[in-house]
Amino acid sequence: MSKKTKRRIFRVSLIVIPLLLMALLAYWISNWYYKPSFVHYPAFGIDIPVNYSIHGIDVSKHQKTIGWQEVKKMEYGKVKIGFAIMKATEGLGRVDEQFRRNWLHAKRAGISRGAYHFFIASKSGKAQAENFMETVRLEKGDLPPVLDVEQTYGTDKTTLQQRVHDWLQAVERRYGMKPILYSNVDFYETYLADRFGDYPLWVAHYFAKEKPRTNHPWIFWQHSETGRVNGIGTAVDFNVFKGDSAAFRSLLKP
Question: In CATH terms, is domain 38-251 a member of 3.10.20.30?
Answer without folding.
Answer: no
